[in-house]
Amino acid sequence: MTAYAASVLPYRADPKPAVPAASAIGAAPLHIVTPLLDTRIGSLRVGLKLDNLQPARSFKLRGIGHLCQHHAARGVRRFVCSSAGNAGYAVAWAGRALGIAVTVVIPHCTPEFMRARIRALGAELRCEGAVWDEANTVALQLAQQPETAFIPPFDDPLLWQGHASLVEELVQQCDSQPDAIAVAVGGGGLLLGVLEGLRRVGWRDTRVLAVEPEGSASLAVSLARGSVVELTAPRSLATSLCVKRIAPALIAACREFDVVPVTVSDAAATDACVRLAEEHGQMIEPACGTALAPLYAQHAALAGMRQVVGVVCGGQVVTLGDLARWQNEQRLC
C-alpha cells in the first residue's frame, strides 16, 4: 500500500511496501500496512498515519493481534479483555479471525453503539464499573479460568512489539526522519510501541509529543514526579484515554527519548476531529483528535520543525451525529 502523494512534501509518493513484522507464531499479522496522508497544517509539513483504516478501525489491532496470535499458539480457548471500546473491539475482531471465544468487560461510560459493534463480532460483553480501571478488575478475575488468556489494552510488552510496526512502516513511507511524532496517550500502550519502534529503526532524535486530555493526564504528572501517579477521577470526552494510571514501564522508556508531555482540552480535540473530517474526509474519535490538536494549534514544542507525523489512531468511538454536534458548537463560539 502506498502513501497518498503531495508533491510539495518530503514523503515518498510510492514508497517500497512496508513488510509487517512477523507474528509470534510465524503467521501473517492481523493488521495491515496503513497509508501516510501528506498534508500541510500551517507551516508544518505533516504526514498523517491513518491507522483509523485498520480492519478493527484503530491501531489497537497491531499489538492486540500480535498478542492474540501468541496466545492462540499456546492453545488458549478464550480471550478476556478490559476496554473502554477500541481494545475490546480489536480483541473481538482478532478472536473471530482466530476462531477463539472472547469476553470483553467494559465500563458504563462506553457508548451503546460501541457495545453493539463488539457484540456483532460474536463476543460476550459485560459492563462493570464507572471507568476502565474498575472494569479491568473484573476482567482479571474472569481470566483466571482454565485455557483463558487475559488481553490487556495497553500494558504488555508483546502489545508494544506489535505497535512498533507503525514506526517500521514510516521508515518505508518517509523520505527522511521526521522531526516529531504526535501520539495520543491513555494507558500508554501506543506510546510504548512508538518508542520501541523508534529504537528499532534508530530514530532517537525524533521528538515525541505525548498528548493527553486535560482531565485525564496521568503521564505528565507521573513524569514530573518520577513515579506513576494514579488519578482519582479521570474525565474526558476521549473516553478511550480515561484511565487512572499509565503503564509503569513508561517512566523509564520516556527517559530514553525526547518525549514532551502535552495536554489539550476536549474542545481542542473535537475541533481537530471536525477539521480532519472537513479537510480529508476521515472520521476520527476524540482520542485521536487529542493527538492532532497540538498540530493544528502549532504547539510551542513544534517550534522550528518542518516534518511531523501525526498518528491518526482510531475512528471507532464516534458517530456522524457527534461530528455534526461538534461542528455546530464551533460555529456558536
TrEMBL record:
UniProt xrefs under SUPFAM superfamilies: Tryptophan synthase beta subunit-like PLP-dependent enzymes
BP-aspect Gene Ontology terms: isoleucine biosynthetic process; L-serine catabolic process; L-threonine catabolic process
Chain ranges of the Tryptophan synthase beta chain-like PALP domain: 32-314
InterPro entries with a match to the protein in the record: Ser/Thr_Dehydratase, TrpB-like_PALP, TrpB-like_PALP_sf
Keyword Cell wall biogenesis/degradation: no
GO molecular function list: L-serine ammonia-lyase activity; threonine deaminase activity
Domain of life: Bacteria
Known cofactor(s): pyridoxal 5'-phosphate
Keyword Amino-acid biosynthesis appears in the UniProt entry: no
E.C. no: 4.3.1.17
Catalytic activity from the UniProt record: L-serine = pyruvate + NH4(+)
Pfam families assigned to the protein according to its UniProt record, in alphabetical order: PALP
UniProt keyword list: Lyase, Pyridoxal phosphate
Family, similarity comment: Belongs to the serine/threonine dehydratase family.
The protein, known as: L-serine ammonia-lyase
Native organism: Tahibacter aquaticus
